[in-house]
Design a protein that fits this description.
By secondary structure, the protein is of the alpha+beta class. It contains 15 helices and 48 strands.
């Protein structure tokens, strides 16, 4: 019988085998297993190729073992996947075969905005990839009389290395098997869509290791007896024999999952052919005429920009190829528990509910040669075995000339004790020579040591419910504040409502961007790879009943920041609870991005935009400049910080958020009773609410109820002199008015007076004032660590009791402007309403009008007084006046009432 006849027997056997889990009773299951084994044995008798015989013999023996198990086991029916849990899968049983689970579809009705977003996301790299509606009609692939073979709009780009060996683009009939591998006539050669020998897919002169590793993992699942999920995505497709067929007109349609939905990708069967023995596309070394892997690869690379695709990660690739949910596990994480990881993955792998690939990190050239692993390279997991405490993985390097790991597997406890399972391990490892080049067994401990990440792609059929929401995120409009660490005020936010306490998986997908470098023409356009995506994304979950949050503090769950286009967050909710879900980013390009957030569960869920807690907002922008960067509340220059007046017309809850894009700044915001005017000294009783400790990049204060009134807001950095722009935002339930107050001394001339000295035992000093015309004056005074002028320093050393001021024991201060002395003196203005102040940033009087006529009754004095002072103290005194030379100030002197 011909090879096609053997293939047909193998396919019939496989179809019977996949029906076993769905059998109505034990007898039907036993008949199916025996019939499938008999078909394999018929094919075995006809086979002449040694490799083909070996494969058929193994399959026949496995089916006979399955028949024996069904016949003798009390609980003959193996548990199906829908009965297992993703979090804690059941213990695997040998040769488990399951039926294909139904993938859930989102039932949420899209808004018009979302529909438009999905349509716009169809354009990528100069091509259109419309949303998938239904399988194409067979007539789409018919070749009419006189009609040319289908030709796509443009050829996909190749790398410089690929161009060096390119012989041209050729139809599949001339490209497979590779002409350089089979020189001479091709009358008995040609492409095929089916095979009987085990698949051995490899890459050669291509850099898409993640894609080929994905294809290897997917085909290995089918070879373990599960339904074929890769070859079923390409059309034309033979539903009776469950495999793709050769297209008469050279046109193929592939269903891929990206940019928010399954999409239709149309390709021709032209493949890049090499003039050397190198191969420019994925190839099956055992079945070199196998076509569908090369077509799927071409469709994927059309989406990603061409054959010069630099690679991504296989978790992303399998998500696009299969729609299986990607999860990245960081093997170097301190939170990783290897035994738990193995238990979770091994059980699901046995049932065919997870595809597993792995990636290495950076490895030096020397280490690559020593251990036989390639750095920053993706590998496929073909099988997983457990013998006692030993956990083994069969790993495939997708490179055609790829090396195998050169390390050794540590002895298990079973081997050390002479246990019977040791023989099974030895038999498995001794079969290493029969493995294809680049394929090897490795134990879990060595995997964790040598690999950086495991990529798990989970069967979406494990869930019964799915909800999708699609949204834009325009980062080009958020440059002033998007760098604020932990600030989520401008992030898209969503609410997920869970009816039961079943696990919910939340998948955030960043859409591939259209990177076309020129306008498409009738001859196509040059494509730039859409794989070049920079930046990091993450997901946060908060127990905020679906209300928007402002900061990243105190999430229930949060995922790591990953440079992959997808990130997964697992939530274990309580019944009838609503959570707030927030996407976060770092270093994404400042442009418009689009995303899809998908929620998967086994019970009903609702996904919607998060509700806003406040209906009104006021926003103002300002900056800390050399004249306004006053530092924290203990700084003498605190009052110089930017301040705002806030008018509240009715009682309201209020949220105050300060953001700066400079994450080196630790910032703070304070709301005080200040009547909407600048405040110069703040006591604890003045504070209405503040943001607590200084926080990098942003600060937030919130109050459940704020009385109507006029308040002052102070924005500060921790250190004085720190410069930077910032945004102040006030959210409330009623409209408020927010305005930046003029900086201290605005419109006034600043005159630094001579330093004032309190000698030992002296508590009061004064300087004469003489207004020369009508003017408006404000006085400030604050402590100094010592005199600032040379003359003052000489005075201090010659007259002071201690020779220095005592830092940390500063006295309370008061400044006044007075007319006259003794009992008849009249105080024109006093700092802090006449009280002594312990403010770290000094004291200040309100503005007062002075004129020369006041001197007719008595002399005018600027008086500085301290309370209970002892040691020498120096003070800096400044006068703000609305005109130059309007007031003359004399020398400080001791004062005695």
């Amino acid at each position: 019988m011909s090879s096609n006849g053997i293939d047909e027997l193998g396919e019939r056997s496989l179809r019977l085998q996949t029906r076993i889990p769905a059998a109505a009773d034990r007898n039907e299951a036993l008949d199916l297993a025996i019939s499938a084994a008999e078909l394999c044995m018929k094919a075995l008798k006809l086979a002449t190729d040694a490799g083909q015989k070996s494969d058929l013999s193994l399959r026949a023996q496995a089916l006979l073992n399955e028949a024996e198990r069904i016949k003798t086991t009390r609980d003959w029916r193996l548990p199906v996947s829908s009965g297992s849990t993703v979090v804690d899968p059941p213990t695997p049983q040998s040769a488990a075969k399951i039926k294909r689970l139904k993938e859930p579809r989102s039932t949420r009705e899209l808004t018009k905005t979302e529909e438009l977003l999905i349509l716009r996301a169809s354009k990528l790299n100069g091509f259109l990839f419309p949303p998938w509606k239904k399988p194409p009609d067979p007539s789409e692939f018919a070749l009419q009389d006189g009609e040319d073979f289908f030709l796509d709009t443009s050829e996909l780009p190749l790398s410089s290395l690929q161009l060096e060996v390119l012989d041209g683009w050729k139809r599949a009939s001339d490209a497979l098997p590779p002409p350089s591998w089979f020189p001479g006539g091709r009358s008995n050669l040609g492409p095929t869509m089916h095979f009987t020998r085990r698949v051995d897919l490899v890459q050669d002169a291509a850099t898409d290791c993640s894609v080929v590793a994905s294809l290897c993992a997917g085909t290995a699942r089918g070879e373990r007896g599960h339904t074929k999920i890769l070859s079923s995505v390409i059309y034309p497709y033979d539903q009776q024999n469950l495999r793709p067929t050769i297209s008469p007109n050279g046109k193929y349609v592939v269903r891929l999952n990206f940019n928010g939905c399954y999409r239709k990708v149309i390709i021709d069967d032209l493949l890049p052919v090499s003039k050397t023995s190198r191969v420019l596309h994925v190839i099956d070394r055992r079945n070199p005429g196998l076509l569908w892997p090369a077509l799927i690869e071409k469709a994927y690379l059309k989406v990603r920009g061409g054959y010069d695709f630099p690679g991504s990660n296989s978790g992303t690739d399998l998500w696009i190829l299969t729609g299986w949910i990607p999860e990245q596990v960081f093997l170097q994480s301190d939170e990783l528990v290897p035994s738990q990881l193995w238990k979770r993955v091994h059980g699901a792998f046995t049932y065919g509910d997870v595809l597993v690939t792995m990636g290495t990190g950076k490895i030096s050239n020397r280490a690559e040669r020593e251990i036989g692993l390639a750095g920053e390279h993706d590998y496929a997991i073909l099988d997983m075995k457990e013998f006692g405490d030993q956990k083994l993985l069969l790993i495939k390097n997708p490179w055609c000339e790829g090396t195998s790991w050169r390390g050794s597997i540590a002895k298990s406890t079973a081997e050390a004790d002479g246990d019977a399972t040791a023989q099974s391990i030895h038999e498995l490892l001794n079969a290493h020579a029969e493995l294809t080049p680049g394929t090897f067994w490795m134990d879990l401990n060595n995997v964790i040591q040598h690999f950086e990440s495991i990529y798990l792609n989970w069967n979406p059929g494990l869930f019964t419910t799915r909800e999708d929401i699609h949204f834009p995120w325009d980062l080009s409009t958020q440059q002033d504040c998007r760098g604020s660490i932990g600030c989520f005020i401008n992030n898209p936010q969503f609410a997920v409502t869970c009816r039961k306490d079943d696990p919910v998986w939340l998948l955030l997908c960043r859409h591939l961007k259209d990177n076309t470098s020129s306008t498409p023409s009738e001859h196509g356009s040059r494509i730039v790879s859409s794989g070049e995506m920079t930046g990091f994304i993450s997901l946060y979950a908060f127990g905020q009943q679906g209300k928007r949050v402002l900061l990243s503090d105190n999430p229930l769950e949060r995922g790591p920041y990953v440079d992959s286009p997808q990130t997964l967050l697992k939530l274990n909710p309580t019944e009838d609870c609503t959570y707030t879900i927030v996407p976060s980013e770092q270093d994404l390009s400042p442009t418009l991005h689009t995303f899809t957030l998908s929620a998967f569960a086994r019970s009903p869920i609702l996904l919607a935009e998060a509700a806003r807690k406040y209906t009104c907002q006021s926003v103002a922008k300002a900056a800390w400049t050399p004249g306004t960067a006053g530092g924290n509340a203990h700084s003498p220059s605190y009052s110089q910080n930017p301040q705002f007046g806030l008018v509240v017309t009715h009682n309201t809850s209020v949220s105050i958020l300060l953001q700066t894009s400079d994450n080196t700044l630790n910032v703070h915001v304070k709301l005080v009773h200040g009547r909407g005017q600048r405040v110069h000294a703040v006591t604890s009783r003045d504070i209405v609410v503040d943001s607590g400790d200084y926080h990098r990049g942003c600060a937030h204060a919130e109050l459940g109820e704020l009385d109507a009134g006029t308040y002052t807001i102070i924005c500060s950095t921790f250190e004085s002199g720190q410069l930077g722009d910032f945004t102040l935002r006030v959210d409330s339930t009623v409209q408020t008015q927010l305005r930046l107050l003029p900086k201290e001394g605005a419109g006034l001339l600043r005159d630094k007076l001579n330093d004032a000295l309190f000698r030992h035992g002296v508590n009061k000093v004064a300087a004469p004032l003489a207004p020369r015309r009508l003017c408006r004056v404000t006085i400030t005074a604050s402590h100094l660590d010592g005199p600032t002028s040379p003359a003052a320093r000489r005075l201090s050393s010659s007259t002071s009791h201690s020779g220095r001021s005592v830092r940390g024991a500063r006295s309370l201060l008061r400044a006044t402007i007075e007319v006259g002395r003794g009992p008849r003196r009249r105080i024109l203005i006093a700092s802090s309403n006449g009280e002594y102040s312990d403010s770290a940033n000094g004291v200040r009087t309100e503005a007062v009008d002075l004129n020369p006529a006041m001197l007719q009754a008595a002399d005018m004095w600027l008086v500085l007084e301290r309370l209970d002072g002892g040691e020498e103290e120096w003070c800096q005194v400044e006068m703000f006046c609305d005109g130059p030379g309007a007031v003359s100030v004399g020398v400080w002197r001791g004062w005695d009432d």
